Amino acid sequence: MRDPLRAVVVGVDIGTTSTKAVAYDVGGNQLVHHSVGYPLDEPHPGYAEQDPHLIHAAVLESVRTVVTELGRQVDGLAFSTAMHSLIGLDNHGTPLTPSVTWADSRASRQAERLRGIPSGLALHHRTGTPVHPMAPLPKLLWFAEQEPQLFGRVAHWVSIKDWILLRLCDALVTDHSVASATGLLDIRQLSWDPEALGIAGITEEQLPELVSTTTVLPGLTAEAAAATGLPPGTKVVVGAGDGPLANLGLGAVAPGVMACSIGTSGAMRVMVERPGVDPLGGVFCYALTERRWVVGGAINNGGVVLDWAGEALAPELGEDAEEELLALAAEAPVGSGGLIMLPYLLSERAPHWNALPRGAYVGLTHVHRRAHLVRAALEGVCQQLALVLASVRAAGNEVREIRASGGFARSPLWRQMLADVLGMPVRFPTGREGSSFGAALLGMQALGLVASIDVAADLVHIGETARPEPAAAATYAALLPLFSELYGALVPTFTSLRRLAPGLPPGPA
Asked: Which of 292, 347, 373, 440 is deepest in the core (most CB within 10 A)?
């Protein structure tokens, strides 16, 4: 009889830029990992799409490499995925469209139109998903209006994870977590929302079967088993979206414990036991299980802002200049000498859920230098997260602890800055891939290897805590209202810029 303590589950995290496969034992120990990258295509302004076949190949390669290096039995696979993706399939399950990602903003006008109708906010409250171009609902409306012939040929609309599972297990299903981020699911009834389907112009039959995130599929097909090096009977747990799973992977499963991440983008989420959205619609609400939900907000502009600063403000530093840029930012004082940056380089999501915003520096004077501009950019990212935190609290949620992860955590400056801006201690768990570990934990519960996902709180260990420095925290607290009010003040300017943009001369080749 197999020793349950030797059980292994591979968490497979289908991300925006790569797929990671990580093997974990039931003690939460990371055994083997491998990742495979792929491009994000931007063929036209506002487009952000991917070749689903490349992602499928990345899943197979990452799992196969882990299985080979592990050299022992794998008890199951469990999946995490970037949310809001959309693919149109024909009757044979072949993609008719690329995978349209969360970063795609082509449906901006459709989203604005939906937000403007009397039932727009009600849709957000009912589905948990903000009416924003990131979401599949406005994307479906875009396809119906801009590609009507293609739209009419689509037999099924799915997410990237749904399609991967179709290829691996020959099952067309979508989990409640991914579905709760489409704008098409009634989160209280856990069924497709008739009004949303009517707006999108699709039927329930064109969507996958709704299943729990802990659903165990029959197993890999013979073809998928051969490609991954696993036995055909290997169990596959459907899994969930990467946001809710990141909370699980950080051990942020108890009410009041918030997970914060800053990678390319950023997010703040807190676990709750019942679904709900604040009256103003400042937060999202996505499922983890039927009894666990995350409330929070995502921002488009995280580490990408530091990348931009390197390219635009310090190009002589070349690529991989993160340490030099952070050292430059450290030369400027807290508050950047009164310089504020709205870091909306890729538009923005929470808490306003509007694709209009653009980046801006405000308060620039002759005394500001490059160090001030770089630091203000980092401060802007943290201040935007502070607005998300305020929205989560406005939705009636207690936040008593913050756990953070992501590439930014390598920087002592940025860690301290986040604690100072949020005005709360920020705890940093020791190294694990949050979403893949969350997927593996969910898989362990589904397979009966652990009693409950609540074990996450015991398996995650805190390595460091950044505590706010009183003087810095006071400075940022004074600046935050100014940062917040700039959005509303500049909306007319953003609107005019969008109208003028098509007629402006293009940049250099």
From this structure: 440
Q: Does residue 281 belong to any structural domain of this protein?
A: no
CATH code of the domain in which 114 resides:
3.30.420.40
Distance CA 282, CA 228 (A): 42
Strand-strand pairing, 284-289 and 292-299: antiparallel
SS3 139: helix
pLDDT for residue 2 = 54
- The closest of 96, 102, 87 to 40, measured between CA atoms, is 102
d(CA 135, CA 169): 26
Two structure tokens written together for 312:
């635009």
Tell me, what DSSP letter sits at residue 410?
A: G
Q: From the centroid of its chain, how far is CA 255?
A: 20
Tokens of 162: 């749904």
Instruction: Please measure the distance between the N-terminal and C-terminal CA atoms of the chain and give it in whole angstroms.
Output: 65
The three-state secondary structure class of 79 is strand
Distances in whole angstroms, Cα of residue 392 to Cα of each of 31, 310, 350? 35, 32, 10
Tokens of 308: 């931009």
- What backbone phi and psi angles, to 5 degrees, belong to 304? -60, -25
Q: Which of 316-325, 326-335, 433-442, 458-467 has the highest mean pLDDT?
A: 326-335
Element (H, E) at 111: helix 108-116
Q: How far apart are CA 341 and CA 328, in angstroms?
A: 16
Q: Total domain count for the chain? A: 1
Which has the closest alpha carbon to 497: 295, 294, 347?
A: 347
- The pTM of the full predicted model, rounded to 2 decimals, is 0.92
DSSP letter, residue 215:
P
Q: How confident is the model at residue 392 (pLDDT cuts 50, 70, 90)?
A: very high
Residues 6+ apart with CB under 8 A from 25: 5, 6, 7, 8, 31
Q: DSSP of 57-74, one letter per residue?
A: HHHHHHHHHHHHHH-S--
What average pLDDT score do residues 491-505 get? 89
Query: In which residue are the tokens 């403000």 written?
Result: 313
Helix (H) or strand (E) holding 169: helix 160-169
- What are the CB-based long-range contacts (under 8 Å, 24+) for 416-420? 416/466, 416/469, 416/472, 417/378, 417/379, 417/382, 418/260, 418/262, 418/382, 418/385, 418/466, 419/466, 419/467, 419/468, 420/334, 420/382, 420/468, 420/469, 420/472, 420/473, 420/475, 420/476
Host domain of residue 79: 4-244
- What is the average per-residue pLDDT within 323-343? 96
Residue 335 included in any domain: no
Any domain includes 326? no
